[in-house]
Automatic annotation (TrEMBL), chain A:
Designated name of the protein: Carbohydrate ABC transporter permease
Subcellular compartments: Cell membrane
Signal peptide region: none
Membrane-traversing stretches: 31-53, 96-117, 129-154, 174-195, 216-237, 274-294
UniProt family annotation: Belongs to the binding-protein-dependent transport system permease family.
Top-level lineage group: Bacteria
Predominant cellular place of this UniProt entry's protein: membrane
Entry-linked CDD domains: TM_PBP2 (cd06261)
Keywords: Cell membrane, Membrane, Transmembrane, Transmembrane helix, Transport
Residue ranges constituting the ABC transmembrane type-1 domain according to the UniProt record: 92-295
Bilayer disposition of the protein: Multi-pass membrane protein
UniProtKB/TrEMBL annotation, chain B:
Organism: Isoptericola peretonis
Record's protein name: ABC transporter substrate-binding protein
CDD domains membership: PBP2_UgpB (cd14748)
Annotated signal peptide: 1-33
Keyword terms, alphabetized: Signal
One Pfam entry name: SBP_bac_1
Stretches of the chain forming a coiled coil according to its record: none
InterPro entries: Bact_solute-bd_prot1, SBP, TAT_signal
Amino acid sequence: MAGIDLTATSPRTTLDVVGRSPASRRRLGRAALYVALGVIAVVMVVPFVWMVLTSLKTPADIAASPPTFLPTEWAWSNYADALAAAPFLTYARNSLVIAVSHTTINLLVASMAGYALARLRFRGSELVFLGFVAALMIPTYTKIIPEFLIVRFMPLFGGNDILGQGGTGWLDTWWALIVPGAVTPFAVFLFRQFYLDLPVELEEAARLDGVSELGIWARIMTPLVKPAFITVALLTFESSWNNFLWPLLVTRTDSMRVIQVGLSVFRTENDTQWAFLMAGTTLATLPMVVLFLLGQKYFVRGFANAGIK
Amino acid sequence: MDFSRRSFLTAMGLGTAAAVAGCATTSPSGSSAADPTGPVEGDITFLCALFEGATGKETLEGNLLKQFNEKYPDVNVTVDYTDYGSLNEKITTGLASGLMPDVVTLGVGWIPPFAFKKAIAPLPESLATRYTYEERVLEPSRFDGTLYALPMVLDTRIVAYRKDFFEEAGITGTPQNWDELREVAKQLTVKEGGKVTRVGFDPFSIDLRQCWETFLFGNSGELFSADGRQVLFDSPEGVASLQIFLDMMADGSADFAVSTEAGQPTTLQQGTSAIMMTNNSLYVQLQQQSPELVDKIGTFVLGNTNPAMLQGGTMVSQSASSKNPAAARALVEFLGSPDAVLVASEQRGSVPAISDLKDSEYVQGNPMVAFALENLSKARSEGGTPAWMEIREKIKPTLETAIVGQQTAQQAIDQLAGIANDAIGRL
């Protein structure tokens, strides 16, 4: 690099080669950024718009070739017909109860576990952490039958005796829907990473002031990892709300079924009733959209801090 | 190694069922529990993959089960609805935990695996003769010569074609063998500017497994030996049944990329194919989406050496471990009766399994269903081995490797035969 002065500045500091000022270049750059983001936003939003529009189309409109963007006839009755096909209000209530329960339990237990793994020194903590990391790698479907058997043979529930015999255990109950999968290793991992970043002086000062370990976790450290809580809450709620296979396997009555299982009624072996499916899906998506809009600031920050996408 | 949740669950479920039976109060083998004599009463569960759609629940519970309860007021039926894609998982977990539903719907090809595991109870032979069935229809209901299920609805894979395109091309008859099919497909293929805008033949709009099986049977091939212990599809007939698709792709008259997308009208409706493999439910779709094409679409049964139509469908069977076997048997008999079969068929545009129903208003008003019923003597079914649930999941991905050019048809069939032999060897 000899002979080149990297610190030398151009004599023209206010105008570029085509005569634009830095402010003008910034505006141009910002405009280009907005255009790019606008295009990406449109790409992301179009499937949702398409879903809503499909939910308002007649079968003939859905089959139109080439496809039409807007319905030629707005079939608002699709929503009423879809809702009449099954007890969707019951399904939605069940999904809400399960999603809220999962979210609450996961936030509480996983944050405590994450805090303990990040801030407390105890024998075997590294091994426990490695156990959680290993648990992240177990495919969901490999756990289904063992989990199902645990649920079915749960002692002293559903007519089972102390040895888990004679009844149905937790099957077709809230226990089966809520307890398995309520705490995820991913959430523990995420909380640990957040708690690790906090300065040690905070907890030391709190200890000197006589604050209990539970108090340090609840009053000193946890308020500083709010993005982690929002992120875990949204991810847990979303995965719980969208869960299909497990609720299908462990329930058999309509009163315990969830929204995603309910929606599957519109997918038949020979055909799919797209208008009804999209109407039901639109309604099922609404809570997630509202939740995201409410927590988007923290959600994005949480993802940025955790380095996940 | 290909891994799917269904194949995993099947292997795990069927494999662990016997081990878990020791923990269960009701043994999956439960042969003694399935005695159907005694009072028809009690609570039973019905695992149901039929009666889907917006009107399905009302059809079953508001209509059929009311009729059943009028006859058997002391039986309380709880219906456990599932989609067909998750039916195997539901049965497998039920079997593994010793809680098989009392009455289950099963697909064609599923009887040997579940009868072999003694998960379902044999039915008296008299039920096979109380109504008129084509023997081909009852074949998949049997295992080792014993009846285990009653067929309810059939879904046949047939060939549909555009009469107007045939007329434009001056083609007067439908192809009678594969050579004719290739020639006709080439004739019907349309290219504009070097790009194919209409393929002569679309075999890829139905499941590749079922399409290949249709061609295999049409070429006088077989999947397995009669006892289900020997693979027979790795014959020259089996390889040729896959090679024909590659040949037609090489001709330019078939294209893996030209098939019906989910939610879209079929390629036949869109005019991007002239002949396609389809399901008899196409007629209902035409009525809803493209009524102007109803008269322009015809059907035929294709074969090379032996015309064959693949018969899928849903059967109803009784658990071998039901605590109320008489009630379960009564429900199986009711669901296999003409009234229930007709209602179920009509609700989903399927073919009723009972031949006596060919004169019904529904069949007469649906030409594709009527066509399928008329040709049931040419119907062939998949399955035939107790290892079928494990093998069936592997067929499509293995055949696709040949379609996309990763290996030859011979290599794909050999690989599939290896997978099937391994699965049978584990029985």
